[in-house]
Amino acid sequence: MVADSHRTVTAIPARERLIFALDVPDFGAAKQLVARLGDSVAFYKIGLELATSPHYFGLLDWLLEQDKKVFTDLKLYDIPATVSAAVRQISKSGASFLTVHGDRAIMEAAGAAKGDQLQILVVTVLTSIAPNDLKDMGIGLSVEELARLRAKQAVAAGCDGVITSGLEAKALRETLGSGPLIVTPGIRPSDSAKNDQQRVVTPTLAFRSGADYIVVGRPIRDAADPTQAAAAIQAEIAGVFG
User: Can you say whether residue 102 is alpha, beta or left, with left for phi > 0 and alpha for psi between -120 and 50 degrees?
Assistant: First the structure.
């Protein structure tokens, strides 16, 4: 358990706090990597790259058969009726998390359709976006202001939590209180390259800032020894949570 002035972190198994982004092109590559990682990873995110392959739901079923948890990172963004229908379909799959993107009506549609098992996470601001990018999009808010606004809308709409950079995690934990989930991508161990991510933090800083889960992709996938890289992050998580 980690306590600070804002919250006491709920009892999520420590090894499930690391979500590995399974960003590979096909089922075969995914199965090979999952087999290689073995017990070092218990929770997998499958996103848009695999969603454009023919085997997305076959992979989801296979991961569940391997006793893994699954995060369907599809960032649903459409009219509310279409999002609602898609969420109902995903809720039957056995996935634990699903991401949505967009306005309050989309969030409300997703929150109402999710059922009892699926948890809906709303994307606040993508970790590839820098402050100047918001200006280019005609948004007059700072990254933190926009993240706070979308986080409050997500919870009010009946969603379970948010996806946010670790740089905004502390502010959002203060805003949301202890209940809603905060899942933080853009994680880079201290010796890793940023790649195309703009707003990154280390695993320890993300959790100390109020995150419940972290999402890690390339620092594990592209490591010389992915299993060792995942194990090192798990050891860092264990050091945070005891």
Answer: left
b/e per residue, 36-67, with b = 16+ CB within 10 A? ebeebbbbbbbbeebeebeebbebbebbeeee
Quick check: 203 and 133 in contact, CB under 8 A?
no
Give the span between the Cα atoms of 161 and 114, in whole angstroms: 13
Question: Token pair for residue 144?
Answer: 């933190």
pTM of the model: 0.90
In a domain, 9, yes or no: no
Average pLDDT estimate for 5-13: 59
75: annotated active-site residue: yes
| CB-facing half-sphere around the CA of 86: CA atoms within 13 A | 20
> Between vectors from CA 148 to CA 178 and to CA 215, what angle results, nearest 5°?
65
How far CA 73 is from CA of 48, 61, 76, 121, 241, in Å, comes to 7, 15, 9, 9, 26
Catalytic residue among 45, 75, 114, 170: 75
Cα distance between residue 107 and residue 100, in whole Å: 7
Q: In 3D, which of 16, 5, 133 has the Cα closest to residue 68?
A: 16
**What is the C-alpha to C-alpha distance for residues 11 and 9, in angstroms, rounded to an integer?**
7
Are 159 and 189 in contact by the 8 Å Cβ rule? The answer is: no
Q: What is the pLDDT of residue 4?
A: 43
CATH number of domain containing 179: 3.20.20.70
Residues 154-175 have pLDDT tens digits of 999 999 999 999 899 999 999 9
In a domain, 32, yes or no: yes
Residue 190 lies in a domain: yes
